[in-house]
Amino acid sequence: MRVAFYAPLKPPDHQVASGDRAMARALIAALRAAGHDVCVASRFRSYDSGDEARQVHLRDLGTALAERFLQRVKPVSHPDVWFTYHLYHKAPDWLGPAVTEQLGIPYVLAEASYAPKQAGGPWDIGHGAVADAIRRAARIFQPNPADAECVRPLMRDPERLIPLPPFVETQPFRTLKRDECRAAVAASLHLDEAQPWLLAVAMMRDDQKLLSYRCLAEALSALVDQRWQLIIAGEGAAEAKVRAAFADFSERIRWVGVLEPDRLKQLYRAADIYVWPAVKEAWGVAFLEAQASGLPVVAGRSGGVPGIIADGETGLLVPEGDSNAFAAALASLLADSQKRQAMGRAAMDRAARVHDVSTAAALLDRHLRDIIAEAA
Predict the structure, then answer these.
(1) Does the predicted TM-score (pTM) go above 0.70?
(2) Structural fold of domain 2-167+356-375
């Protein structure tokens, strides 16, 4: 079937890498793997930082773009389904509801988030639009189970809220040869192959990302008497603040910036433990990529993170923002190579079974076909 895909927060071809962009691309890949014809309906970003006048402007612009889409689409080839990924009060969907109403086609959402406390606040316009979109949806696929509690009461039929485990294409991560990757990374970054390598992959923004970096630095400061080296992949406006957080042991850190996908896969495969405190994190594509590569994970228990890391099996979860608990969990893996290797194997196996694009493709395809049948 023909699927019109739209991501109001960030289009899938946006120039800045992020987990949101990665998930948008993954959804398109899964839909295409299921045999569907997917087109990106619009690159319009509806994101607003809290200015009411700008929200009105974005709403009006989105309405105009919806009308333009309707004018150019041909009756014999219009989409069978509209699929919007990731909307919330700061980035509502101003196109999909209007287009689907005019064309009489199903409206589908993935990763919808609704926060009742935002009613009447600075994003009230977007907040109301999200509520309307949720009520309209024929299905909502939720990669973050933490969102379900507030989304479900708005739906016409709560049974149409479908858990969708976050996913990546796992095969390219697990087939790399670890010994070759480790030797190459050791040579290029001047790392000691005899020491455990920690890896963190995250943009450097002055928000919850910075909070996570600082929590990680605090945890590592308690482990300076142990053997480890840390690779940090990422960049951003808060880079100076991030670097300052690790200043006391900067000789153990390797800063690699933003990497091309193949180079990043090599780092995942070469490392020993993936570390990220996940303060106020929704779930995180990097957690999936790390586990697909065979890395055990130490993470904060926030948002949807417990849905993708099996505590005690594929990694260790600690209270969100608790640097002492994070340090203790990490120390237990640093001290036990057999434990981290067993967790790494379990992580790779679980990623291939539960979080692979093929599993997502089958789930999406089944429900899309049901939706079309229901609309007939």
Answers:
(1) yes
(2) Rossmann fold (3.40.50)
